[in-house]
Model the fold of this input.
Amino acid sequence: MRLRRAYSLLELLLVLAIAGLLITLIPPMFSKGASSAELKASARGVVAGVRSARSQAISQQKTLALRFDLQEKNFRIEGNSKIYRFPSDLEIKLELAQSAQAGKNKDFDDNIGVILFFPDGSSSGGRVILGYGERQYVVDIAWLSGQAKIVE
Done:
């Protein structure tokens, strides 16, 4: 008859401790990746909105506004019913020309920001800063060309 060797209590406790450590460390790694993907998608959404507003301003030969609502965490193109929403935990900051703010907002509000797009393709310009904690993307909108680019 052959003797079977069993695991000692110390070995079992060590395996359980390692498993517990892995269970607590791995989920935060995946949630960080998801927020990073949401952040990049939000920045791309802003660029798509900028491109759409600019092309509509050119094709309709009129000034259009891209209106950001920081409190509701969304943006839309003036005259368009579609509202683009940001994730609720996303941090949003705007750096805009004051003339665009005062000129397009009848009741000026710190929670509302406006970027104007003109028939010649130019814009009032500005920056949309999107972030989760330390990680952030900046969407730069050039005033002369009205084009947007993402800066990490």
